[in-house]
Specification:
This protein is an alpha+beta fold. Helices cover about 20% and strands about 30% of the residues. Strand 7, helix 7 and strand 8 form a beta-alpha-beta unit. The protein is globular, with a radius of gyration of 23 Å.
Length: about 450
């Protein structure tokens, strides 16, 4: 994510209402931040004892998760080396270490940014700086790494900047460890896995997972509940987890803070999305720099331990499962009352007229001005309402949505209903008479449009 201050760590509530079903959009559940139920332990071994976890048992193992190490921000010697110093003391060593994206900063410094020549050279330098410490990390345990939005950019072919340093190093992984299934996917620049990787993920988890077992999928962007930014994650997880039962988890970074959110899949199974904080002390966020130790026994998650580097209180334990509200994993406009829809990156080009925004493959970010024009005949003249999927960036100007029947007579949409990222409004009579609906959006991110009765 773009490194700015006061980001999404404070976002906890979205508007809830009757339009959730209408738009196929669920408001995200409230994050569980462990403030009430974490207990401190002076050492990792003491944390294990609090969890009643014996790492030496034959069916037990640990996994270390870290994310958003962002080589290129601050002093490289203050990123992985302090974690390396602590992890060398683990006994037994973890089964593997997962580094889940945003290894560097400069391959794409913000959503939709395509680097120039100088920026590409700097990104390669950052990958090389990370590589020297990565080699040390591999001496401790097998390392499973993947990429995030700062490690690649929209339209990059074959992960060229990463491959210039790491060659054929894999960025996707699927395997079992003592009965637990792990799948690690490359979320890339926009959380869009792509058809090939999405099919791979679905095939791997359905082959490896056993009913009632534990499945952990890692991807940089924790976007299971989103329909605007990184909306491809929800579709990929729904497909991969269709009809699966058991203890289902998705772990990601990207947001630079710790929380859990729970979601219900269409077949009724609940999954937990765990977001972990950044491992770099100089980036924005909360409870950083830090890493997590997940503890498994008998094929189940026994508990989790969080370590904030430099925290004198030691190690904090978190439960293997959390309570709280559950939201459905819905896809955009998932409703039969939608007459017609079009998603960004999926056939929207004929309708786009003005673009002052950052291109993120299947959504627009940092929208300063975005104009689309829709002929109402696409809905056979039956449309009376319009729905847009748009999010407002925090800390910026208020989001604006305006409508017109022509190129000049713009009117702000003031009478609308909004749930989560979905805004629904009545199409003005002037547009119905003209047979054309023009939409102008400002100060937002945008992913799709629908015409409705």
């Amino acid at each position: 994510m773009k490194p700015t201050s006061n980001r999404a760590a404070n976002r906890r509530e979205f508007i809830r209402g009757a339009l959730a079903g209408l738009c196929g959009v669920a408001a995200l559940p409230t994050a569980h931040t462990f403030a009430a139920d974490r207990r401190a332990a002076p050492t990792l071994d003491a944390a294990f004892r609090l969890l009643n976890f014996n790492p030496d048992a034959g069916d037990a193992f640990t996994v270390v998760w870290m994310a958003d190490i962002h080589y290129g921000v601050g002093n490289a010697q203050q990123i992985l080396p302090p974690m390396l110093a602590e992890l060398r003391g683990m006994n037994p060593r973890p089964a593997f270490i997962g580094v889940i994206g945003d290894l560097i900063l400069t391959a794409s410094t913000s959503f939709g940014t395509v680097p120039g020549a100088a920026q590409r050279l700097k990104a390669i330098e950052e990958f090389r700086a990370f590589q020297s410490h990565y080699e040390e990390l591999k001496k401790l345990a097998p390392v499973k790494l993947t990429l995030g939005n700062h490690d690649t950019y929209p339209g990059e072919e074959n992960l060229g900047l990463f491959r210039a340093v790491f060659g054929a190093e894999p960025v996707t992984h699927a395997f079992k460890e003592k009965g637990v299934t792990f799948a690690i996917a490359n979320g890339g620049s926009c959380g869009l896995l792509g058809d090939r990787q999405q099919k791979w993920l679905a095939s791997q988890v359905k082959t490896l997972h056993r009913p009632g077992g534990t499945l952990v999928t890692a991807v940089h962007q924790p976007s299971v509940g989103r329909v605007v930014r990184e909306r491809g994650i929800a579709a990929a997880i729904r497909e991969a987890y269709a009809d699966l039962h058991g203890d289902l988890w998705v772990v990601g970074g990207h947001e630079h803070h710790n929380d859990d959110r729970r979601f219900r899949l269409p077949h009724g199974q609940v999954l937990t999305q765990a977001t972990i904080t950044a491992g770099n002390p100089k980036t924005w966020g909360t409870e950083l720099p830090g890493y997590w130790v997940w503890c498994f026994a008998g094929g189940k998650l026994a508990g989790r331990v969080f370590r904030r580097i430099g925290d004198e209180s030691g190690f904090a334990i978190a439960p293997a499962a959390t309570n709280g509200e559950i939201s459905p994993v819905l896809l955009p406009f998932e409703d039969t009352r939608t007459l017609w829809k079009v998603m960004v990156g999926e056939g929207d080009e004929p309708y786009r007229r003005t673009t002052k925004a950052a291109w993120c493959l299947n959504y627009w970010a940092y929208v300063r001005e975005l104009v689309y024009e829709f002929p109402l005949k696409v809905a056979n003249g039956h449309a009376r309402r319009c729905a847009t999927l748009m999010d407002s960036p925090e800390g910026g100007k208020p989001m604006r949505l305006a409508v017109a029947a022509n190129k000049t007579d713009w009117k702000d949409v003031t009478d609308s209903e909004r749930t989560g990222a979905c805004t629904v409004f009545t199409i003005p009579q002037t547009c119905l008479d003209a047979g054309t609906l023009r939409l102008k959006m400002e100060n937002c991110a945008v992913s799709g449009f629908a015409l409705m009765e």
